[in-house]
Design goal:
38% of the residues lie in helices and 15% in strands. It has 28 helices and 22 strands. The strands form seven sheets. A five-stranded mixed β-barrel has the order 3-6-7-11-8.
Length: 775
């Protein structure tokens, strides 16, 4: 039957993918893939003389064409106002229908999206790609994009229950009936600090949504049990697993402390425990490994198991499986050869290839959820789950080590968590994003835009891509300054710096510093205030919350961290490798490029920073100064580039900003007794959306030219400032002035950096310098 289908398609010169109905594919994509695409494109003839002997092959099977077609038709239906029922809608799993949040609101087996950040890159997995069942008359069936034996939607409905249960305990003995293929695995988390209005833009009822910010903002306190990240998603009902975990936290922590006290000073994992030059017997080394594998580990809390950078984010992570075509892998091998040079690249890796993904990339995946991840582990032949899974009293499962377990107990629990913690997501395709894409493009535009169009867009002139006329742009700029002025207690000078911070992105990286980065310290002069402790604390909280709320309403992602001694000492803020669980432990500074991070230092009091606290403070300073984060792998440090704009609010100078930093210290001079966001919440939806579009455009705008007359003015001004005060007019500071001049021109609707823009920035700097003299 399979041969006849392929022969008929070839004779009729018909492309199978063109005949597939998009509604059918979106509703049940795995069925379409198994019955049509795999049948038509998943085989090759073993012998040129005959087509009767067919060998199954891994590949794209033209799935990318079907996916593009379905996404395009879904976009057309979304824009059609006459259609009240959206049959072709593709939900985002953490904001599926605008009301429910989480995987519970995603229909089983339906095509869906997952917008996320790559938090960790795992080892590739080998899985059963296709097989022949016990039934003699049955042909090849594929389990690609599914967990073997676990997904009801991936099983053949016409087979009996006994014939559905395929056994793969020893794949080597069944090599003639089983084909093992490879997939890449990534642990991905929702974009940390993603604003709620960004999530609402993609839902079906987005025309009725109107999110102006959340008012009071709870700052993430790393050392405490409360606090939430800005824009971290809506609250969700607690799961059974969460309730069970929380009940056992206290006992587990006590057991862990007792275990640490009883452990010797020297760990079994040190070099002295390893066999050197064959001097240690293999039996001893094996015994040591078995002991380490089966040693007890304290049960993780639910937050630790989910491994999110910002705690209390109710949106869920996923273990994403990416399926590359063999053609992509071969192209990568060619391009990575030692003799290759830029002129000899003939097969560049596809932009849909997993080789293009790296840590902290913002990615939007299209695929299906799998809610039975334990069956994936069983298919690998590594874990005997039938013997190792035990059931709790309420039906929840916990894993126990078994004799034939390839992984250690802790590693297995991290790699194969319950679906309620991190379900597996099988990706049909993906696209890499910038945060600004979430504002400027629809989901379909983000995926369908070709690489060539991205290049054209990046090289286009500013005047061609401007979303508004110059007068409209200038008017919106003034309104945004008014919003920040109100949030900062009436300080219009500081409001201008806050707006620059919201619009800044790195334009160029050099060995010395990142060009375009902007970090600001708003310092509160306590000497100017005669308020008592409680009144001062309330005023500071109002100011920080109002500033964070204003930034959240305009920026796609905003993280808020409370900086105090307990928070700095509690845990590492940068990601750290956990070798027991073989994963990268997330930290609050693992943020997506383009995130604005608000640091609240107003609660900082006298205390002693432990080694962890000192490292955390140094990590923040390094990112502010060089936009690089040092990830901790115990035996070495790995430096990764970042693009995070920091704004620190402190009493006096911030402990995180130093004199030789390019960060700007702006003393606050409020003219009102309190800070609020009244103007922000009074805005209509269209005006607020236009402001967000303008901020995203300025962040994403290409290089601006400097006119000849302006260039001479800037050059003369810089020379004069270097002569007047060499310490003030440093190279980093001059780059900051040019960055703000560029942002000022864009926000005022100008086509190039002008003398007016430069003079306006110099006037702001003179005002701030005068304030700084009395700080």
């Amino acid at each position: 039957t399979m041969t006849k289908t392929m022969a008929t398609a070839a004779n009729n010169n018909t492309n199978i993918e063109d005949t597939i109905d998009s509604r059918e594919f979106i509703t049940n994509p795995r069925k379409v893939i198994a019955e049509k695409l795999f049948t038509a494109y998943g085989f090759k003839s073993v012998s040129a003389a005959t087509s009767s002997a067919l060998e199954p092959i891994d590949g794209d099977w033209n799935l990318s064409k079907v996916l593009k077609k379905s996404i395009s038709e879904s976009e057309e239906e979304e824009k059609d106002a006459t259609k009240t029922t959206k049959w072709l809608s593709i939900p985002e799993i953490n904001h599926a229908d605008g009301k429910g949040v989480g995987i519970e609101s995603v229909p089983e087996g339906k095509l869906c999206r997952f917008r996320c950040v790559v938090q960790d890159m795992r080892d590739p997995e080998y899985y059963v790609g296709c097989f022949k069942s016990k039934r003699a008359s049955s042909g090849w069936q594929t389990t690609k994009f599914a967990e073997h034996g676990g997904d009801e939607t991936s099983r053949m409905e016409e087979e009996d229950d006994e014939e559905r249960l395929f056994t793969f305990e020893n794949p080597q003995q069944q090599s003639s009936n089983v084909r093992m293929w490879e997939r890449k695995v990534f642990y991905c988390v929702p974009i940390p600090g993603e604003a709620k209005w960004v999530q609402e833009r993609d839902c079906l009822e987005r025309e009725d949504t109107h999110s102006n910010g959340d008012g009071v903002v709870d700052f993430t306190s790393i050392g405490g049990n409360t606090g939430a990240s800005v824009g971290g998603g809506s609250a969700k009902k607690r799961t059974r697993e969460e309730n069970n975990e929380e009940e056992k936290i206290k006992d587990d922590k006590e057991a862990k402390m007792k275990e640490e006290k009883n452990e010797p000073a020297k760990s079994e994992d040190t070099m002295e425990a390893m066999p050197i030059n064959g001097s240690q017997k293999t039996e001893d080394f094996t015994a040591m490994n078995n002991k380490n594998r089966n040693k007890s580990f304290a049960r993780e809390t639910l937050d630790e198991a989910r491994n999110l950078p910002l705690p209390n984010d109710q949106r869920g992570p996923c273990i994403v499986c990416v399926y590359d075509s063999p053609e992509d892998d071969e192209g990568d091998k060619e391009n990575n050869s030692e003799t290759m040079n830029s002129a000899t690249i003939t097969n560049p890796p596809s932009r849909r290839s997993s080789t293009q993904l790296k840590l902290n990339d913002i990615v939007e995946f299209y695929g299906v959820l799998s809610l039975n991840p334990e069956h994936a582990a069983e298919a690998f032949g590594n874990i005997g789950l039938n013997d190792s899974i035990e059931e709790d009293g309420d039906g929840a499962t916990t894993t126990q080590p078994s004799d034939d377990d390839f992984y250690g107990h802790a590693e297995r629990a991290a790699l194969f968590p319950a679906s309620s913690i991190a379900p597996r997501f099988h990706a049909f395709g993906f696209t890499k994003l910038k945060l600004e894409d979430l504002v400027l493009k629809t989901p379909a535009e983000r995926y369908l835009l070709d690489e060539e169009e991205n290049v054209k867009e990046a090289s286009a002139s500013v005047s061609m891509v401007r979303p508004f006329e110059a007068a409209t742009t200038n008017a919106m700029c003034e309104k945004m300054i008014d919003i920040f002025t109100e949030a900062l207690g009436g300080d219009k000078v500081a409001a201008s710096y806050a707006l620059f911070l919201a619009c800044a992105r790195i334009r160029l990286r050099t060995d010395e510093f990142p060009v375009g980065s902007l970090c600001v310290n708003f310092s509160i002069d306590c000497a100017l205030s005669k308020e008592d402790g409680e009144s001062k604390r309330k005023r500071n909280d109002n100011l920080v919350n109002a500033l964070a709320s204003a930034l959240q309403s305009l920026c796609p992602a905003t993280a808020c961290l409370s900086v105090d001694v307990p928070s700095l000492n509690a845990r590492t803020w940068v990601p750290k490798k956990d070798y027991d669980r073989n994963r990268l432990r997330a930290g609050p500074l693992q943020l997506a490029d383009g995130t604005v991070c608000v640091l609240d230092e107003t609660k900082l009091q006298t205390g002693i920073l432990a080694e962890t606290g000192v490292k955390n403070a140094r990590a923040v300073k390094d990112i502010i100064q060089m936009q690089k984060a040092e990830y901790d792998f115990d035996y070495h440090q790995m430096s990764l580039p970042t693009d995070i704009s920091f704004v620190a609010v402190s009493e006096g100078k911030s402990i995180l900003f130093s004199e030789d930093t390019e960060g700007l210290v702006v003393p606050l001079r409020p003219t009102k007794n309190e800070s609020n966001t009244t103007l922000l919440h009074a805005l209509d939806k269209q005006t607020l959306d236009d402001m967000r579009t303008l901020v995203a455009f300025v962040r994403n705008a290409p290089h601006m030219d400097i006119s000849e007359s302006c260039g001479k003015t800037i050059e003369a001004s810089m020379v004069q400032k270097r002569q007047d005060d060499p310490k003030e007019a440093t190279q980093a500071k001059m780059h900051s002035w040019l960055t703000m001049s560029r942002l000022q021109s864009l926000l005022k609707g100008r086509n190039e950096i002008t003398v007016d823009s430069w003079e306006e920035i110099m006037e702001l700097e003179r005002t701030v310098k005068n304030r700084r003299r009395v700080l």
